[in-house]
Amino acid sequence: MKTVAVCPQCGKKQFGVWHHTKKVLGALFLAFIAFSIFDAVTDNTQPVLSQKDTAARQSPLIQIPADQNEFVAVVEKHRSMLSGAKNNIVKKEVRNARASALMEADVAQFVGGWIGEVSSIDVAGDDGVFSVEVGDDIRITTWNNELSDISDETLIKRGSEPYISLMNLSRGDKVRIAGEFLPSEEDYFKEVSLTLDGAMQDPEFLFRFKSITPVK
Predict the structure, then answer these.
(1) Closest Cα partner for 69 from 111, 121, 131, 130?
(2) Which of 50, 90, 154, 203 could cross-link 85 (Cys pair, CB 3.0–4.6 Å)?
(3) 143, 154 in Cβ contact below 8 A?
(4) What's the Cα-to-Cα distance from 168 to each of 46, 84, 121, 130, 214, rounded to whole Å?
(5) DSSP state, residue 126
(6) 171 closest CA partner among 103, 112, 120
(7) Phi, psi of 141 (to 5 degrees)
(8) How far is CA 203 from CA 72, 79, 97, in A?
(9) 118: nearest Cα among 136, 135, 130
(10) What is the pLDDT along the chain (216 residues), one digit of tens a residue?
């Protein structure tokens, strides 16, 4: 049966089935658009993790020993004090103050479990040369030649356990180390830079490595 456009009794305009169907479809379409916009906004508000954040969540945090943090803090503090130094006399006094601060901080000569990043691996004669960065531009190291090492004996002996460990390492690898600093009247721990600025800005402290273990 066909519907009429106007009711014959009251004169009210009549709407067919297709008109009602269009209204329902329109409402469904608007609901779909609203849901799509809400879903997009929700996605955009989710935190975006950087590669560094993702790696941190996937890997457990590496605990830095307290004495290593203390050592690095003393060195960094006195490095920052050089910015106002007018001449080398002032810089030398800052260096003396650093030695005193290391002594007062009671950083032990023998340390273990320190965490660092491999700075260099080399050989001198038959023995290993090794350097580890334990803080920003703060390294602990062996001598890099046999002559300088005659009395200090920091070069890593061929065939020793630390030497064998070096064979599996590359620059930039994380390692856990143990060993001993060499005592010094000038720096408390012996430092081998050729210049005063180098000793304070980019220090290298001599170290006898007893163990070297990769950190995964």
Answers:
(1) 111
(2) 90
(3) yes
(4) 41, 43, 11, 13, 9
(5) T
(6) 120
(7) -155, 160
(8) 11, 10, 15
(9) 130
(10) 444 444 555 555 454 544 455 554 555 545 554 455 444 444 444 444 444 443 434 445 789 999 999 999 999 999 999 988 999 999 999 999 999 999 999 899 999 999 999 999 999 999 999 999 999 999 999 999 999 999 999 999 999 999 999 999 999 999 999 999 999 999 999 999 999 999 999 999 999 999 999 998
Nearest to 135 by CA among 209, 31, 205: 205
The residues that bridge with 214 in the sheet, in sequence order, are 175
Amino acid identity, residue 116? G
Give the chain's end-to-end CA distance (angstroms, integer).
81
- Which amino acid, one-letter code, is at 175? V
Closest CA to 201 of 88, 103, 99, 80: 80
Q: CA 50, CA 30: separation in Å to the nearest integer?
A: 36
Q: Check if the beta carbon of residue 139 is closer than 8 Å to that of residue 203.
A: yes
* The one-letter amino acid at 27: A
Provide DSSP, 146-198. Answer: TTTTTTT--SB-TTSHHHHHHTT--TT-EEEEEEEEPEETTTEE-B--SSHHH
